Amino acid sequence: MKRRLEETLEECLAALAGGQSTVEECLALHPELAAELEPLLHTARRLQEVRAADPSPLYAQAARQRFLAAMASRRQRRLEARPARPSWRWVPAALGSAALVAFAVWASVLALGGGGGSQEPSMVVSEVTPTSAPEPVVSDIQRQVARVQAQLEEVRTGAESGAVESVVIQQLKEETAALVDSLDEAEDIESEDASQIQELLTDQKQILSEMKEKVAPEVAQDLDDAITIAQAGLDTIQKYLPPTPTATPTATPSATPSATPTPTATPEESPTSTATPTATASATATPEVTPAQTPEPTPSPTPEDGEEPSPTATAAP
Amino acid sequence: MGYDGGVASLAAGGGGLRRCQPLYPGLEAQGERLLVDAARVGDEGAIAELYNRYFPRLYRYMLVRTGNVGDAEDLTEEVFIRVLDALERFEWRQVPFSAWLFRIAHNAVVSHQRRDGARGRFSPLSPNLPVSTQGPEEAVEARLALDEVMEATRNLPEAQRRVIALRFGAGLSVAETARALGKSGGNVKVIQHKAIVKLREMLVDKRPEGHEEKA
């Protein structure tokens, strides 16, 4: 019965709102519910008076102007973000590609003795040409980076004023997730961009972690999610980062043993003769390494020497 | 494209106060889909048209939710800015556009209430607030009636108030209201019924004795 009243009430409200019938007509259509419906429909009619409330023309005009201005500023921001890389910045890459093509042509001509090489160079050109075209992926990523930056800035400002809205965190989460997705899908990212993204995501993690203690539990959950997403992005971006900071320590050990693999192979095969390795090592490796290596193997037992280089030798590639 | 007007009409002031919103805008859904799709990819004409369509509805929703013209104005603008920023991420598979927009509106109200206290503040409607009526006397009467209704609405429980704001302020259908609230249509009808019953009690209590209900 109650369910029927709710349904009938809605039916009458729809008819009243659409101007298809009056309260009386509705009541006449449902005489069995008329007693209960009548007061409700009169109240609903009063509620419908809210539809007569219009925003003041002055406010409406000012709000419209502000909205247009906001739209224009966003358009401007998009335009600024779009030419992610000025065309002149592609010149080195294009020159590099051209040089590569020229080298490939020259090499193939040389290899074929200049005779039947006319087909090879043209194939190389057609294969290489596409790589010199500017890629769309990077500029998309840069646009996303700009969005995450803007959103993070909004979060930071909110945090400073002590009022961080969950919607803002949600948006940051979504923007960061979109960026991380793009990183996963990207074929290549310039190391400069990768460093910028790393810096941004590290900042994000730090800012959000600091905020966690000061916000409500439901917002804290969103913060956790955003931190996790940022971490995922940091993990992904590693492969695009230039190896400069970590290269120095790894290069030194790998350089030294690179000469030793030759001696280690030999002692395993003939453990008794310790003198032979030095001979083979000095024959194959560079002269600077040989003097340092030669005194060592002779006094010390071979297994110790043979153990050490093997892990570094595998690590080197 | 399926829409007209756009930025030019917005800049010229056309459409902002347009009374183009039927309570049950089912037939407009197809056109709106085109409009929203264009807006999502940055078509400013489409964005402007959406603004025109939803501005008065959002304003009335805010009026019912906050019971205060100043807050309703501030929040209406704030929501449109949020919509502008989030529009390209909108996806049809989740909710209809109206439901999505009024979810943003709800979040804005919640944030506002958190800042301003649990219930916000009620103030009678400004005498300058335009009310679409025939003459000045009717306008005064309508404004008083509106004040009374809004004050009563303010005393409803949160869930009922949200339903009333969406149904009678924003003019959403039961289905759209249900999507905006993440409830079933049946549930919305139940809440709506309870809200009207409660409002009825409050409004009758306030009415001077001998006052007849006019049809």
Write structural notes for this entry.
The complex is a heterodimer of chains A (317) and B (215). With 317 residues, chain A is mainly α. Among the domains of chain A are: 2-51; 90-132; 136-244, no CATH class. Helix content of chain A is 73%, strand content 0%. Chain A is built from 16 helices and no strands. In chain A, helix 7 packs antiparallel against helix 8. The longest helix of chain A is centred in the middle third of the chain and has 26 residues, at 136-161. Mean pLDDT of chain A is 68; it is low at 115-138 and 246-317. With 215 residues, chain B is mainly α. Chain B has one domain: Orthogonal Bundle (Rna Polymerase Sigma Factor, Chain: A), CATH 1.10.1740. Chain B has helices at residues 7-12, 29-40, 44-66, 69-86, 97-116, 136-154, 158-169, 174-181, 185-206. Chain B is globular, with a radius of gyration of 18 Å. Chains A and B meet through helix 1, helix 3, helix 4 and helix 8 of A and helix 1, helix 3, helix 4, helix 5 and helix 6 of B.
Q: How are the secondary structure elements laid out?
A:
The complex is a heterodimer of chains A (317) and B (215).
Chain A: H1 2-17, H2 23-29, H3 34-47, H4 57-81, H5 91-111, H6 119-128, H7 136-161, H8 166-185, H9 191-211, H10 217-237, H11 244-255, H12 261-269, H13 275-284, H14 289-293, H15 302-307, H16 309-315
Helix pairs in contact in A: 1-3, 2-3, 5-6, 7-8, 7-9, 8-10, 9-10, 12-13
Chain B: H1 7-12, H2 29-40, H3 44-66, H4 69-86, H5 97-116, H6 136-154, H7 158-169, H8 174-181, H9 185-206
Helix pairs in contact in B: 2-3, 3-4, 3-5, 3-7, 4-5, 5-8, 7-9, 8-9
Short description:
Chain A is built from 16 helices and no strands. Chain A has 317 residues and is mainly α. The radius of gyration of chain A is 36 Å and the shape is elongated.
